[in-house]
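thought: user wants a sequence for this fold. calling inverse folding tool.
action: design(structure=
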């Protein structure tokens, strides 16, 4: 009987053209199509339906039988389910479905999984692109070991408004820096190839312009010219695609009156049209259903129609697709081709991840354990944290800079964050059972540094944000016993982040009052400002001799802060956002337009574009950060001052370390287009180099400027450059630069 069957098969196979007879689905696309052909409509819609596990990161919608939906093939993805054991368990249920299509597990691994790294805004302050990529790489290794296939990161939203709590999640205000970092994070998460056991799918979010919410109020409207959208907010998303981002997430905001989730201009015309994005788009949490609140959809059914037709593929948590797509298809309002396209895009990623070959390959408890407390990961988290720290002020006292400290000093650590551990993790971080031993507080970090013979005093002084000053007396008495006081103040763990917009971003009054109380003792004070966003702390900045911006630095925070305090790491961070003097200055950013009446300086107010009660300049400018070393720049040398067409300009500048301390400097190159068919910013970051300089060392840095650096979106949305005069500027921040003018002709 067997022989006959075999003979029959051979006869059949020979009769087919060779290309078909031996054809095996080879590409993920072919494999996806082979599955698509077998799927029922319910199973197709199931692939577009994503629910959260019981650990919610958005408004809760009670749902019945999630496991039943998985078992019937009615759910294709789940978010917020972590751990090799738990993901394996649910995957086993998915394998009971008719077609055994594996589940995709997504998670907000924004700045580390088990090894919590500095928040993304802090990492952006490092301007160290390889380090930022490595941070994402380690996050992917640990997340993939915990059964996670897909991270909802990098968040690449440009923002010029620190009232918006989610600035902590991005790379700050600059499009060029944000684009370079977006690419690095995508590469870090996805590694050399999707499908590697150490890689996860990246997800560029939130598409688009979510960081421009009016008033810095989360989820608020966004209204801007399409030119501004292309010029400032879209480039980091394009950089993410060019780096291979597998998925996109759209955003809660409406953009020029059309919610992003249902916005065909964004998702169909730009993303999948002009940019030819082949991955898939997931909505944000419930954002399809929220189009009803927006007043764009009359009901969930219309929201489902608008969203799928606009190019959104997967529905996170709104149940719009599950409840209404079938009817919309039957009514002919949504073509099956669009549903097939969405399903195909998702299946392709599941094939690329190898989940059809082995649905459990990421759910390996032994491998998960092997990544727990990986010493190399922790060591790098400490290095990344130190690189992220920005030295804002370091006055000289008795002939020498107050920082770095030395171990013979008696040090008083004072402040509401000194002993805190979890406040150093910041928003979008995970809790683990052993956090109390894993997370290094400032107190623990300094204790580690000083060892048993250190003279270390401590007082809390005050709470984060109440009116209780009863701790001041003990704090003052403690300060009086010390040679120097180090205060760690700022924000609690979730004061910045999603749904954490604030109209007042001042350092809380009680904390400033505690600083003033210690200041009255006359003891030298170092203030470490830990926060998820730029804060306003003018009195402290003006009166305290040393101020260090320490963001939220992750599990190695205390060790990193101690490394900087005692000079074992020379701070090299530069601000990725402008720091306002008051909320009244917001939005504030360095690459502003000159206006017809520019203020020439901070005092100039007479009939110019300025406030009568405040300078225009920020408290601390974009790109600003000091070092324990002293860097000086030589005169910038230009290869030419008259250029033509596609020539390139070589800009060379020497940087010298005039100190006896090795240190890193971020040399920044800005360009100004003096006259354009649309007005151009007074300066734009176009290149930077972070270099290490030994004491006394001089390095010549060369930057290559091309016409691409001169290009912008004109009124016709063409990305082009225009002949004319340009200023080339170089310096260690966006304010203190040297300038030379060139002429570039077509
Ligand atoms: C949240 C966030 C988004 C996140 C998602 C899943 O509302 O806006 O960034 O990835 O829901 O947690």
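)
observation: tool returned 746 residues.
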């Amino acid at each position: 009987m067997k022989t006959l069957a075999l003979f029959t098969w051979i006869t059949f196979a020979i009769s087919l053209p060779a290309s078909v007879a031996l054809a095996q689905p080879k590409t993920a696309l072919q494999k996806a199509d082979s599955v698509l052909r077998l799927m029922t409509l319910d199973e197709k819609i199931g692939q577009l339906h994503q629910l959260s596990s019981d650990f919610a990161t958005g408004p809760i919608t009670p749902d019945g039988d999630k496991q039943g939906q998985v078992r019937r093939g009615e759910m294709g993805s789940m978010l917020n389910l972590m751990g090799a054991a738990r993901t394996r368990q649910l995957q086993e249920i998915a394998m009971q479905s008719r077609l055994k299509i594996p589940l995709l597990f997504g998670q907000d691994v924004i700045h580390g999984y088990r090894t919590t790294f500095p928040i993304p805004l802090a990492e952006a302050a490092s301007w160290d692109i390889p380090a930022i990529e490595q941070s994402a790489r380690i996050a992917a290794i640990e997340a993939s070991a915990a059964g996670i296939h897909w991270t909802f990161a990098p968040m690449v939203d440009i923002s010029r408004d620190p009232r918006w709590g989610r600035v902590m999640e991005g790379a700050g205000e600059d499009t060029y820096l944000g684009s370079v970092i977006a690419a690095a994070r995508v590469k870090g998460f996805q590694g050399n190839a999707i499908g590697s056991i150490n890689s996860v799918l990246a997800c560029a979010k939130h598409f688009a312009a979510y960081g421009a919410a009016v008033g810095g109020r989360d989820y608020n409207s966004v209204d801007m010219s399409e030119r501004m959208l292309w010029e400032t907010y879209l480039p980091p998303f394009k950089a993410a695609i060019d780096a291979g981002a597998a998925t996109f997430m759209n955003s809660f905001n409406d953009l020029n009156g059309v919610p992003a989730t249902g916005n065909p201009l964004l998702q169909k015309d730009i993303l999948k049209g002009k940019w030819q994005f082949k991955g898939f788009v997931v909505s944000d949490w419930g954002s399809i259903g929220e189009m009803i609140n927006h007043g764009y959809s009359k009901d969930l059914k219309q929201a489902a129609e608008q969203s799928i037709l606009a190019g959104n593929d997967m529905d996170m948590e709104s149940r719009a697709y599950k409840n209404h797509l079938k009817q919309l298809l039957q009514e002919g309002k949504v073509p099956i081709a669009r549903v097939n396209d969405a399903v195909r895009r998702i299946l392709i990623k599941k094939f690329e991840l190898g989940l059809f070959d082995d649905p459990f390959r990421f759910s390996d408890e032994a491998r998960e354990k092997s990544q727990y407390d990986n010493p190399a990961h922790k060591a790098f988290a400490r290095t990344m944290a130190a690189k992220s720290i920005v030295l804002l002020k370091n006055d000289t006292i008795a002939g020498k800079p107050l920082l770095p400290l030395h171990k013979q000093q008696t040090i008083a650590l004072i402040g509401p964050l000194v002993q805190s551990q979890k406040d150093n993790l910041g928003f979008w971080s995970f809790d683990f059972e052993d956090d109390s031993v894993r997370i290094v507080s400032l107190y623990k970090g300094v204790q580690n540094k000083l060892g048993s013979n250190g003279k270390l005093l401590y007082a809390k002084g005050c709470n984060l944000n109440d009116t209780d000053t009863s701790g001041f007396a003990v704090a003052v008495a403690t300060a009086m016993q010390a040679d120097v006081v180090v205060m760690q103040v700022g924000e609690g763990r979730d004061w910045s982040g999603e749904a954490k917009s604030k109209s007042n971003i001042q350092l809380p009054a009680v904390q400033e009052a505690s600083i003033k109380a210690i200041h009255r003792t006359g003891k030298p004070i170092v203030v470490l400002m830990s926060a998820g966003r730029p804060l306003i702390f003018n009195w402290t900045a003006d009166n305290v001799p040393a101020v260090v911006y320490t963001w939220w630095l992750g599990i190695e925070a205390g060790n990193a802060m101690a490394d900087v305090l005692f000079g074992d790491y020379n701070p090299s961070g530069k601000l990725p956002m402008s720091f306002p003097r008051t909320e009244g200055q917001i939005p504030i950013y360095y690459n502003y337009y000159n206006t017809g009446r520019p203020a020439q300086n901070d005092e100039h107010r007479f009939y110019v574009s300025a406030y009568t009660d405040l300078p225009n300049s920020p408290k601390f400018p974009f790109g600003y950060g000091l070092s324990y070393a002293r860097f000086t720049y030589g005169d910038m040398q230009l290869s030419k001052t008259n250029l033509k067409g596609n020539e390139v300009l070589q800009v060379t500048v020497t940087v010298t370390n005039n100190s006896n301390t090795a240190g890193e400097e971020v040399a920044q190159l800005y360009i100004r287009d003096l006259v354009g068919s649309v007005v151009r910013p007074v300066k734009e970051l176009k290149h930077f180099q972070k270099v290490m300089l030994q004491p006394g060392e001089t390095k010549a840095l060369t930057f290559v400027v091309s016409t691409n650096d001169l290009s912008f979106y004109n009124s016709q949305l063409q990305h082009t450059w225009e002949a004319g005069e340009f200023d080339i500027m170089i310096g260690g921040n966006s304010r203190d630069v040297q300038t030379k003018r060139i002429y570039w002709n077509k």
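thought: summarizing for user.
answer: Here is the designed sequence. Residues 694 and 711 are 36 Å apart (CA to CA).
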